[in-house]
Amino acid sequence: MALAEQFLLDALAYLECALGFVSYVLLRVVGSPYGRYASPHSAFPVPARAAWVLQELPSLALPLLACAGARAERLNRWPNCILLGMFLIHYAQRTLIFSLLIRGGKPTPLYSFVLAFVFCTYNGYLQSRYLSQYAVYSDDWVTDPRFLTGFVLWLAGLLINIHSDHVLRNLRKPGETGYKIPRGGLFEYVSAANYFGEVVEWCGYALASWSVQGWAFALFTFCTLVTRAQQHHQWYLDKFEDYPKFRKAMIPFLF
């Protein structure tokens, strides 16, 4: 039974890689249908705050259930605990803090909400089950250069993501409407600093975990966010005549 589930987790990881490439192609063709790009005529829109809480919740709840499970055999090892903790911290912030700080926010189309919920359930199960039951690390893995470098990247990406969300959230003063050019932090170099932070964060997690499950998540994140970043970047260029031309879409000095 254990061998069968381990095979399943590997298969799900490879499938996540494939889904990442499919998502990249589809989003390049149709764009990201949420936020400012969502049709005002979308059926059954979900309020922004409720959508964020509910769609992200599986990636918070499933690791917590794994921690509470009596048979979480691998969580008696520090590397497994720290890696699962890294995953939990991100989704606790997204589910319980980020969502509650949303100011207004456009409703999310129902189909976008459902897709996000399904992905968070899929990936939440994949990461939490793998780390709690099957990932084997030696006790000194926490001193391995791959783990240490990955942890630093994860922490840097998390902080960039949180700071960038703060910048976006405070672009408008109370009572103001309309869009503004983001400034400060990595927004001086890229149009989607929040996405850059999240990509760095999950690449760090993947490096620290050194697993196909971790790298599948990082690849999927990159494939979906790079297309959104390019869409944002083009929108800013079209919207604002004075938009800084030297800014890149997501990766500073590259693209």
Automatic annotation (TrEMBL):
Top-level taxon of the source organism: Eukaryota
Subcellular location, principal: endoplasmic reticulum
PANTHER family tied to this protein: 3-OXO-5-ALPHA-STEROID 4-DEHYDROGENASE, 3-OXO-5-ALPHA-STEROID 4-DEHYDROGENASE 1
Keyword Transmembrane helix appears in the UniProt entry: yes
Name this polypeptide is given: 3-oxo-5alpha-steroid 4-dehydrogenase (NADP(+))
Role: Converts testosterone into 5-alpha-dihydrotestosterone and progesterone or corticosterone into their corresponding 5-alpha-3-oxosteroids. It plays a central role in sexual differentiation and androgen physiology.
Lineage: Eukaryota, Metazoa, Chordata, Craniata, Vertebrata
The enzyme's E.C. designation: 1.3.1.22
Keywords (A to Z) from UniProt: Differentiation, Endoplasmic reticulum, Lipid metabolism, Membrane, Microsome, NADP, Oxidoreductase, Sexual differentiation, Transmembrane, Transmembrane helix
Its membrane topology: Multi-pass membrane protein
